[in-house]
């Protein structure tokens, strides 16, 4: 069966790492048709729209989407794209790899981030001059969806520790609902779990990441905690992510368009290639997903490495090394 | 001039570390009158109120308050107490000390956290069953107050780097107002500064804390980022904080009541004693504040140390060692 994959490189290093991931996918024995769409600062400068209707439709119609990064317009691109694919779960594994210089070399955590609500509601008002509000929304339905997804993910992927992150001591009603719904899901499944206030969790993650497995988080907490964990394992160049919906999904590196190094051909393609591996898993090509991960891990361990990891290799050299190991 | 200091030990290790800090203050040549008040789980169990009116009044009337920690009722105690003292700025230095095993030994950051609004508004609603909202409030006035405080603090304390943390790419109107107001303050003062998205900042703080000095944050971001930084320097047992108002202030360790170790006499009193040092600075006893900090630093460097820092000393032994060095 042919799968149609929408490819949206976007801006900056998105233009450099996305082709690398596509090359890796093309090297596998999978039946993918690639269609390419525009999004981001560049297309906005040309057309006035950061996310053209054609790109939206492409992502909606595809079996899965690979997205690189966008610049200033990142939120205008990625937030609607997550909606287009119906994503309710943002899955962000943070793993330290042998041989890399990590702040915490013993990290193997998957953040399962609620991806539709919280402070991402987009509802903001000016009440009077100088006084503005944002309506943070938490529903039982979205809380249940993310908790079910998180506990299922932990079970399927062999994680014993599940932590529910929240700030229900301050956001009593909203995070209270998130917490109580997630706890109810755990009880229904007879699953073990811990709960953690998100501030205390930030501290513990820094000191003892080895104590955590799957962390189920509200939207903004997941945004911050997964970036924190990127810092623990050696930077954003390593973190892939999946935005998972019922019938569609989008895969993207956690990093942005990195304007400081864009155009130099030295961006680390690992996060993007690992995102492609998550896409393979998602479409049922688990063995291929594992092969790609093993190849990337081999290269991370033995080099060549891009400058963000202390090496001096180019994006192309790293990509070729991954291809050689497939 | 005699200063009246309200002392509120609270629950758990608050009962152990607060007397330690008072002992240190009593050993100095300062004219303090101490009055003690109840707050927390224990007094709630007895009286039904986590923060009795008498304690509220004591904090309101005092020149400054020392607060230990509260248990389950932490939010019911500390949030109203911050209001009672009119605190708009929560100052949280995170410093790594020589000789201690820190995740990042080169950390010297002061978080200046907005302390009155954001998601701490307390405005929550149930819209319909299973759908709840929280109104996040950002005002120009509070944003200006915290930014002015932050830039002044940086100048007075010799910090070159000031970073304004925000998530204005998602919370466009609210954090947009926070960011633009803080930037306006910087321009007015001709001060250098950087801005950082709070997620990216979490990553950079973990990898390169040495790049940061003063970080001005919205309320919840400051809550999380300062705990993150506590993890970098060796745990919450080391972080003091000041809740500063126009005419009053409250000083407390960043840690909580630590029920797991409460009652054993092994709690690290450093954060609490360092909070007392901030109280001394605040009341104009800068030399005494420096003396206390130097004594604590000496003990952290050479021991004795409590178990959280890998030692086996008791709270009393550490406190005596600090007193010996004064
Ligand atoms: C660009 C931004 C809107 C986005 C988010 O906050 O979700 C990004 O930080 C991410 O984590 O993918
Ligand atoms: C106890 C809680 C309400 C409080 C806060 O969120 O401010 C605490 O985490 C802190 O940082 O002092």
Automatic annotation (TrEMBL), chains A, B:
The keyword Translocase does not apply. Keywords: Oxidoreductase. GO terms for molecular function: isocitrate dehydrogenase (NAD+) activity. It holds the Pfam family Iso_dh. GO terms for biological process: isocitrate metabolic process; tricarboxylic acid cycle. Residues 4-322 form the Isopropylmalate dehydrogenase-like domain. It comes from the Archaea. InterPro entries: IsoPropMal-DH-like_dom. The keyword Repressor does not apply. Belongs to the isocitrate and isopropylmalate dehydrogenases family. This is 3-isopropylmalate dehydrogenase. It comes from Halomicrobium zhouii.
């Amino acid at each position: 069966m042919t799968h149609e994959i929408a490819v949206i490189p976007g801006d900056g290093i998105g233009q450099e790492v996305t082709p690398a991931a596509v090359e890796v996918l093309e090297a596998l024995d999978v039946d993918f048709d690639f269609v390419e769409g525009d999004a981001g600062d560049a297309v906005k400068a040309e057309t006035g729209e950061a996310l053209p209707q054609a790109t939206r439709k492409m992502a909606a119609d595809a079996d899965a989407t690979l997205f690189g990064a966008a610049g200033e317009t990142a939120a205008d691109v990625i937030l609607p794209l997550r909606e287009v694919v119906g994503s309710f779960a943002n899955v962000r594994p943070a793993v330290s790899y042998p041989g890399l210089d990590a702040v915490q070399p013993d990290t193997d955590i998957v953040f399962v981030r609620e991806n539709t609500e919280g402070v991402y509601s987009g509802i903001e008002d000016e009440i009077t001059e100088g006084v503005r509000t944002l309506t943070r929304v938490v529903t039982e339905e979205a809380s249940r969806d993310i908790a079910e997804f998180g506990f299922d993910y932990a079970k399927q992927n062999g994680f014993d520790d599940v932590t529910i992150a929240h700030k229900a001591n301050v956001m009593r009603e909203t995070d209270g609902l998130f917490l109580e719904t997630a706890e109810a899901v755990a009880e229904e499944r007879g699953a073990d779990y811990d709960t953690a206030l998100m501030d205390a969790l930030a501290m513990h993650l820094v000191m003892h990441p080895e104590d955590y497995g799957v962390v189920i988080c509200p939207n903004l907490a997941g945004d911050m905690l997964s970036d924190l964990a990127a810092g623990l394992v050696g930077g954003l160049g390593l973190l892939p992510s999946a935005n998972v919906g019922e019938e569609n999904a989008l895969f993207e590196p956690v990093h942005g368009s990195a304007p400081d190094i864009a155009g130099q051909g030295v961006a680390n393609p690992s996060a993007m290639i690992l995102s492609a591996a998550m896409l393979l898993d998602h479409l049922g090509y688990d063995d291929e997903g594992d092969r790609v991960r093993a190849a990337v891990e081999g290269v991370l361990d033995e080099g060549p490495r891009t400058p963000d990891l202390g090496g001096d290799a180019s994006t192309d050299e790293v990509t070729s090394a991954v291809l050689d190991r497939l």
